[in-house]
Amino acid sequence: MTGGIAAYKAALLLRLMTEEGHEVHVVPTEAALNFVGKPTWEALSGQPVYHDTFEAVEEVNHVLQGRQADLVVIAPATANSLAKAAAGLASDLIGNILLTATVPVVMAPAMHTEMWENAATRANVATLRARGVHIVEPAVGRLTGVDTGKGRFPEPEDIWAQTKTIAAATQVGQTLAGKHVVVSAGGTREALDPVRYLGNRSSGKQGVALAQAAAAQGAHVTLIAGAMDVAAPEHKNIAVVNIESTHDLLEAVLDHAQHKDALIMAAAVADFRPASTTNEKIKKQDDDSAPTIVLEQTEDVLRSTVEQRDAGQDLPRVIVGFAAETGDAHTSPLEYGRAKLQRKGCEILVVNEVGVGKVFGQDENDVTMVFADGSEDVTIQGTKQLVAEAIIERLAGALS
To answer: Domain containing 151 — which CATH number?
Structure first.
């Protein structure tokens, strides 16, 4: 809530929310606390109240609040807060929440009639609506003092009724609502000694983007994370399971994918591991000789999972694999990918050409989706987030 006299009526809105069982976190501006103090909001919500960007910094609170929310309601929304939101300013905690939240945003303005009808305010409201922000129209009636006109804070019951309608419509539009998706991300590492390992260049960016895209469509997500250059997403619907080796990955997939709807194997699996390891660091020799390292193949996580499903295990009926390929003089990466689809037995395979400066660690991706049912290939180019959204869209279609 922002700093308007209608803040006292927002306490009634908060009560309506909590009485229906919702967990509500109140974020007031400093100006809002001049009207209703922090103890009131903490008592009514049963949650700690933060209003400063530099509070709870160890939790990265200015980002965490927006990521964990299912819905953001700003009530009352002053003319100043509408202007700051339209400009994308992050000068306070609310501004940071609006920039990080990917969920519906509802704003209930309250101000004097002249301020509501000012051309600047009207332009800001139009900008926010064009971005998908839901604006609850102010009521007409008694304002502060003796003024009367449009700009009155709507009754809390009206705001809550409209908010629930907006939330319900958004939920209906989520293509994976009620589904549970397992996503693997990052690279696996195969130990040689306590210091060294055999690994790959995977950053985990594409897998994290897939987890976020699935959660945005209403899915509960289990993210099985190997070595990643990016942090695992902080989202109430994303649970993170950390692994290191390919064997760890296989065990985690067979465990956490049980009774789930879909599996996306985006992790870059190390195909080989040292045939033997040592508990002590391998030392350099004075004669400059190097040890001979014998490799063996690791488990085929994707094929093993498909085989166990086909043998009767309750594993996802839609499994999406990834094929990071390089071509040669005779065969293209896509041709290698088609052959891999046949060997692995999954429903969808995402093929991309990899190499130094290609895909691994980059923000862009260029993939082709091939399908076991013979559907036409789909090529996607763009940011890894855009690629993730396109994959999730096809996944939702396969599940439905």
So the answer is: 3.40.50.1950
Number of domains making up the chain: 2
Question: Which tokens is 88 given?
Answer: 């994308």
Question: Which parts are annotated binding residues for CTP?
Answer: 271, 281, 322, 340, 344
Both structure tokens of 279: 């508990």
- Average pLDDT rounded to a whole number, residues 357-383: 82
Per annotation, catalytic residue among 96, 124, 200, 365:
200
Residue 80, token pair as written in the block: 């100043």
Asked if the structure places residue 281 within a domain, the reply is: no
Q: What is the pLDDT averaged over residues 16-26?
A: 92
Q: 60-69, 174-183, 266-275 — which is least confidently predicted?
A: 60-69
Q: Is 297 exposed, middle or buried (0-12, 13-18, 19+ CB in 10 A)?
A: exposed
Summary mean pLDDT of the chain:
90
Indicate whether 277 belongs to any domain.
Answer: no
Any catalytic annotation for residue 34? Answer: no
- Gap between the Cα atoms of 10 and 44, Å rounded: 11
What is the mean predicted confidence (pLDDT) over 372-387?
Answer: 89
Asked if residues 26 and 47 have their Cβ atoms less than 8 Å apart, the reply is yes
Surface-to-core class of residue 283, CB atoms within 10 Å of its CB (0-12 exposed, 13-18 middle, 19+ buried): exposed
Separation CA 262–CA 318 (nearest Å):
5
Say whether pTM exceeds 0.90.
no
Residue 356: per-residue pLDDT: 46
Same-domain pairing of 111 and 197? no
Give per-residue pLDDT as tens, 97-144: 999 888 889 999 999 999 999 999 999 999 999 888 999 989 888 887
Amino acid present at 32: A
* CB-CB contact of 106 with 71 (8 Å): yes
**What range defines the domain where residue 390 resides?**
180-270+295-399
Are residues 121 and 208 part of one domain?
no
Binding residues: 271, 281, 322, 340, 344
